[in-house]
């Protein structure tokens, strides 16, 4: 009897540390007008935002749950704490950050990354940003990278925030967009002026330490004409038995000829429901690149959407999903071609093991105006055992004749022929299998920032047992 | 007449995509049952003109060759269910010419080594609408399904093709392939394609692909360099799409009827192959 190749679970020990919280800092769990009013008071919201939150609550209450996708039966919003008062106000000096929070981010390597390879860093702990800093040279070029609340209260940016906040993802979009509109807190505001090209990335890291809580950060990025930016987003949480919720929102405005790469490594713990919404509006000649790694959370709904609104705008989506035991990761992307000569490319990989379920879901719309549009979708799924599940559900909707749209998908296991070929070249069977699985993920990992690519390769660790057949 | 949901996608997706089901007022379906006995071969041609349900069982080592022609150009609903036993095979050829059609095909490959081979061709024009929901459900070991769809859309026609290959747990060694190629010939058309693979078994191979839009520009260039104008190239390509499906039909009467419905000259080169 032969043993099968074993692909290790993701080692979460790096993320599974936590510090006790003072629960007097927690607002009541659930979502009521009183809680919303309390959040507005805590955050000193301007009037328009107070009204926006309450309006969003109304929309939340009358919007039904989605009738498709992974089950979220285990999520009870009445048990989720939507806001936790911060232990400290936002700092631009790392030494002023409270010790336990500082230790958390030190363990996650954030300050080191800032020193070595980033133009700016934001760190959110539970409901609020605790640290935000941007390198002087970036600031001098006019780049704004700050927390959203500060920007909202700054006369220089207040109008920009008001005219862009939840305009791409309105609260009416779906139930959790409405929830976000009501209880959002934290997140980053980035503004890159015309012609400024930032060569090194900005990074925001979101850490949810409290149990039974939600994190609802809002990221708003505006790139003016011919500017460019690479933005990195990382998220993690320690594991609890209580369900946690992440319902963040990302709105990206990519101006004429501008270029934005948005990289995310999502590594929430397996008690988390990750119901996140991300959307980009791309103007003429602009480009959005999404690089997405989904490894954590119990249930995920994540489909970054690109709206190609100007002639020649383009979108690329590169994603990998690794669904292990107890995980139901429903991921993919949406692309709307709304202008002539727009182009899009989607390339995804998914791996399912130990009873994990991975679903790739996509929507490509070629609108009536998208004459000369081109789109290509490629998705591959690898099943590593019989207990797991992998589904692929793409939709292509074409409304003009002058376009070229292609779609390809494959599903299967590691092929015996490939193993045989590699063994004929002198590799052991174990090494051959290891090489194939790493190779399967390679075209995604090479798109990740180096430190994340290394982390991903460590996550997909192979262990061999005896002869494999 | 009662409004019901037809062509329900086995696993729903984004509600905004509008592909999860079709809401339709339907009358009662007339039911036709076909049983193909062990080791038997049956060939059948059906002309579908109104609400029709066909239930087929193919016993072990049996073989079914079924041709369905939808040429009424009227409102029409059809359901087809096929169950295949050990080493049984089902070969289905469907041709849709115009109309307002909702068509569902559910094939259960329950037997070891069962095979399902489908070729579908459609030509839509004017305000024609077509919604096809095809499900190949593999539960038999080493079962094989192959789905090839070729279509041409003109006018302001609207089409949705939902093709699902569903590998159930236990379908060890199963193989499923699905391909849809659509040529669009008018900027008012709407073409929706939903190629789904559901997989609960490790040892399977599933592939699907789709191409939608214009003819490849290299082909156009080659044909133009041979002196053929672009509108003629599209006309030839459209005919070739349908011909590849019609040529799979052995029944001469059916081929003639289809050719007439398409307005083709009967007895041409295409029809002699």
How would you describe this protein?
The complex is a heterodimer of chains A (469) and B (273). Chain A is α/β, with parallel strands linked by helices and 469 residues long. Chain A has two domains: 17-302, no CATH class; 416-469, no CATH class. Helices cover 23% and strands 35% of the residues of chain A. Chain A is built from eleven helices and 25 strands. Chain A has helices spanning 33-42, 47-62, 99-107, 110-117, 136-140, 148-153, 158-164, 175-183, 416-424, 429-445, 450-459, and strands spanning 6-7, 120-125, 128-134, 144-147, 188-192, 202-207, 214-215, 218-223, 228-236, 244-246, 249-254, 259-267, 272-275, 277-282, 287-294, 299-302, 305-308, 314-323, 328-337, 343-352, 357-366, 373-383, 389-398, 403-412, 462-463. In chain A, the strands form three sheets. In chain A, strands 4, 5, 7, 8, 10, 11, 13, 14, 16, 17, 19, 21 and 23 form a 13-stranded mixed β-sheet that branches. In chain A, helix 1 runs antiparallel to helix 2, helix 2 (47-62) packs antiparallel against helix 8 and helix 9 packs across helix 10. Chain A is globular, with a radius of gyration of 22 Å. The model of chain A is unreliable at 1-5 and 462-469 (pLDDT under 50). In chain B, 15% of the residues lie in helices and 50% in strands. Mean pLDDT of chain B is 92; it is low at 268-273. Chain B has one domain. Chain B starts with a strand and ends with a helix. By secondary structure, chain B is α/β, with parallel strands linked by helices. Chain B has helices spanning 217-225, 230-246, 252-262, 269-272, and strands spanning 2-6, 22-26, 30-36, 41-47, 52-58, 63-70, 75-84, 89-97, 100-109, 115-124, 129-138, 144-153, 158-167, 175-184, 190-199, 205-213. Chain B has four helices and 16 strands. The A-B interface holds A 66-68, 303, 334, 361, 363, 368, 371, 381, 383-386, 388-413 and B 11-17, 19-20, 153, 167, 169, 184-187, 189-214.
